[in-house]
Amino acid sequence: MVASASKCRTCRAPAIIDLPRHNAHFCAEHFLQLCRRQVTKAVEQFEMLNADDKVLVAVSGGKDSLAVWDMLVELGYHADGLYIGLGIGEYSDTSADYARAFARDRGLHLVEVSLRDEYDYDVPTASRATRRVPCSACGISKRHLFDSAALKGGYTVLVTGHNLDDEAAVLFGNTLRWDVEYLARQLPVLPARDGFPKKVKPLIRLTERETAAWCIVRGIDYLVEECPMAVGNKHLAYKAALNAIEHESPGSKANFYLGFLDNMAPLLAGRSAADEHALNACSSCGAPTTGELCAFCRLVERAAAHEPVPVELLLRKGRSR
Ligand code: AMP
Ligand code: FES
Ligand code: ZN
Ligand code: ZN
Fold first, then answer.
1. N or C: which terminus of the chain has fewer CB atoms within 10 Å of its end residue's CB?
2. Is 56:155 a contact under the CB 8 Å cutoff?
3. Which atom of ligand 1 is nearest to 163's Cα?
4. 161 in ligand 1 pocket by Cβ < 6 Å?
5. Angle, in degrees to the nearest 10, between helices 164-176 and 208-218
6. What is the domain-level CATH number for residue 49?
7. What pLDDT does 313 receive?
8. Which pLDDT score is estimated for 319?
9. How does pLDDT run across 153-184, given as a tens digit for each residue?
């Protein structure tokens, strides 16, 4: 990852990684130490976790979620994993293999939920049934199942692997649109309320390059491939734009997002419409919602009635457009 002559900033041993935004190189040991410090700093600053929390980590089999699970276990938290089978063909089969292997090799507990087995649909079918982009059905399904699995299992906090690149890209999109409502909700901690578990993002101070390096140094096998249905979405374009800026001016990405949290987020407190709507229980599943049926139950109703659509069909359609 770096020229062999570079030395670790802390111990002067040969470095394995350069981090331009810290203007330094690090050996494996001190790189891991830096990552732990960044996670601990995020956890403490935003009061994400307590020592006695029962933590559920949503794991996709990718680098970020496996890295955060590994770090939290290493830091001494009681943390189980949650894997959701989205039914996105081979991509989902392989991602499940990585999540299961990680849990098995370390003797950790992985909770599994399968959309097809338990709710009679999958993401490609839901996308076709609703005539919406796959990420829309995928997001509704994941959010609902994160909440319900956490509450059902008696977990006090749900953790996701969103990193600095993810959050900066979402912030960039929300800012381009001046979507004040989304900006007001873009916080790394959502407190528990009205039947929702507390949700936290401990990786907000680490980039995806750093979480990938964490996995490599720690010997964690992860799924490198991105979801085939995300190809070409705006989120990836925003990430590329921010990377171009970061390349010219190291540290810009962290300043953009972490500066938002310090300077802007407090000014936006109370601007989220979600704070104002009264919530009632979904008449089918009991989850909090503003309507009669929650978005997830409406999705299940439509998607489960549709004949199964293989992911290849959607990908072919995407390419020919
Ligand atoms: P994404 O929305 O794909 O960028 O993923 C964001 C976070 O959601 C990941 O870091 C994981 O914590 C979680 N996640 C994504 N896919 C899954 C899945 N299939 N099962 C459980 N958690 C997931
Ligand atoms: Fe959700 Fe790709 S992971 S659409
Ligand atoms: Zn060192
Ligand atoms: Zn419902």
1. C
2. yes
3. 10
4. yes
5. 170
6. 3.40.50.620
7. 85
8. 46
9. 999 999 999 999 999 999 999 999 999 999 99
In the prediction, which pLDDT does 186 show?
93
CA 4 to ligand 1 center in whole angstroms: 35
Tokens linked to 72: 């939290």
Closest CA to 86 of 111, 51, 118, 132: 118
DSSP H/E element including 243: helix 234-248
The pLDDT assigned to 1 comes to: 59
- How many structural domains does the chain have? 1
Quick check: 59 and 37 in contact, CB under 8 A? no
Determine contact, residues 311/229, Cβ cutoff 8 Å: yes
pLDDT at res. 320: 37
Residues with CB under 5 A from ligand 4 (ion): 282, 284-285, 287, 294, 297
Helix, strand counts (H, E) of the chain: 14, 10
The residue nearest atom 17 of ligand 1, judged by CA position, is: 60
* 16 assigned to some structural domain: no
In a domain, 28, yes or no: no
- Looking at residue 321, its pLDDT comes to 34
Q: What is the pLDDT of residue 314?
A: 83
Which ligand lies nearest to the CA atom of residue 166 in the structure?
1
Measured in Å, residue 104 CA sits from the centre of ligand 1 at 19
**Residue-level pLDDT at 80:** 98
Which of 59, 100, 229 has most ligand 1 atoms within 8 Å of its beta carbon, as the pocket-test mutant? 59
Task: Give the atom of ligand 1 at the shortest distance from the alpha carbon of 230.
Answer: 3
Atom 14, ligand 1: residue with shortest CA distance: 60
Q: Which domain holds residue 98?
A: 39-320
Ranges of residues in the chain whose predicted pLDDT is under 50: 319-321
**55 within some domain:** yes
The response to whether residue 162 sits with its C-beta less than 6 Å from ligand 1 reads yes
pTM exceeds 0.85 for this model:
yes
**Residue 122 beta carbon below 6 angstroms from any ligand 1 atom:** no
58 Cβ closer than 6 Å to some ligand 1 atom: yes
Q: Are 147 and 194 in contact (CB under 8 A)?
A: no
Q: What is the pLDDT of residues 215-243, one digit of tens each?
A: 999 999 999 999 998 877 888 999 999 99
